[in-house]
Amino acid sequence: MAVKQKTMIKNILFLLMLFTLLSGCSSQTNTTESKIIDKMISDNSVKVRKYIKKDAVIAHRGTMYWAPEETEPAFRWARNMGADYFEFDLQLTKDSILVAIHDNILSRTSDVKEVYPDISKPRVKDFTLKELRNLDFGSWFNEMYPERAKEKFAGQPILTLKDIIMIAEGNRLLRINGEPAKEVIDNNWTGNYLYEKDLQDNKNRPGIYIETKKNHLEKLLQEELKNAGWLITDHPKRIKTYKGKLAVGNSKGRVVLQSFHKKSIEQFNIYLPGIPKCLLINSIEALGVPKAFYPKTIDFCIKNNVEILGPDISNKEDKDGLTAPWMVELIHNSGMIVHPYTFNNTAEFEKFGSLVDGVFTNRADLALLYYKRLQSNISEKVLAGLGY
Ligand code: G3P
Ligand code: CA
Question: Looking at 102, 216, 235, 332, which residue is catalytic?
């Protein structure tokens, strides 16, 4: 009996040792990186991800190349060229209106220094919409790029979220003697403009790809998208589409949300669930530590129902920026897709285009040629056809 007991104890000890040894081995090989490869976005995020078409052409600020960024000419051009999305950056005015402008400060892209010379640091958030509408957001482009200047770029106004949605739906600002017509209520201008059907609209219906900063506007954005009929989770309106033309604007992927700021992504998750989301990442965050950075970032995305990563393609330190093949593979393994920024030339499309699922680009023309959706570059013709 005593011998039997001893053998049993020996066997148990042996099994315990074996178990400890095996668990030790597995924890050594199961690094954070290999764990994350096994983690997937949820089934619901997979469903939402599928709202977004493959090889999406995302017209960065409309275009920064052919027209002044985030103005009516930039977005009308992007729509008629056939870009899938208008990309723009939202900021809040002093009177809580959502306007499209990249910089917090107005100086680079407007004549604010001439119109309001006493304000040393003219921030968007310190001006009302009416005050901002006094500014010219086009002439700086004509001065900086004389080879692409157009007379009608001068005097272009800042656009609201509503203005951009109207352009995506095939409208333009109503103009009287070249000036935008004002919406007047009780003898007062509301700050809004009136619209008319765009006679040069070629029936493409793009979506919108909206970037937020640290400006806490997610709840307001939800309300405005709902009012415009563009909130696909809450009785979206049907936007008429045309055979052979772009129809993203009437799809469930009509709105995509993006931000560099994790706080904003968390707010999207609260106020705008079920809408595709993109976390933008820049090379500085990952400098020197991309192997540790990526698993952590993907983990955040999985937890916050983010379906897209928007990595940088440029980085002085690293020729692939944050879009090296191993990085794209890691992202794809998690079930997410990749929309890097910002493509400016053919070499970049050749280098990264086949790896990724869509591109933020100032050259929607080059992207459409790369994807063989255009036969020749009709950019100048499209601008002229739009009256610029
Ligand atoms: O939104 C993608 C890209 O626009 C991020 O960079 O600085 O141009 O907004 P930025
Ligand atoms: Ca942006």
Answer: 102
Stated as kind and residue range, the H or E segment containing 257 is strand 255-259
Give the confidence band of 321 by pLDDT, cuts at 50, 70, 90: confident
Contact 205, 247 (CB under 8 A): yes
Which residue(s) pair with 209 in the sheet? 87, 256
Which sequence spans correspond to the domains of the chain? 43-104+203-385
Q: 3-state DSSP helix/strand/coil percent for the chain, to nearest 5?
A: 40, 20, 45
Is position 60 annotated as part of the catalytic site? Answer: yes
Say which CATH topology domain 43-104+203-385 has: TIM Barrel (3.20.20)
Structure tokens at 377: 């570059």
Written as six digits, the tokens of 7 are: 């053998």
Atom 5 in ligand 1: residue holding the nearest Cα: 341
pTM confidence score = 0.90
pLDDT one-digit tens code per residue, 114-126: 999 999 999 999 9
Q: Quick check: is 216 catalytic?
A: no
Q: In the numeric block, which tokens belong to residue 3?
A: 């011998």
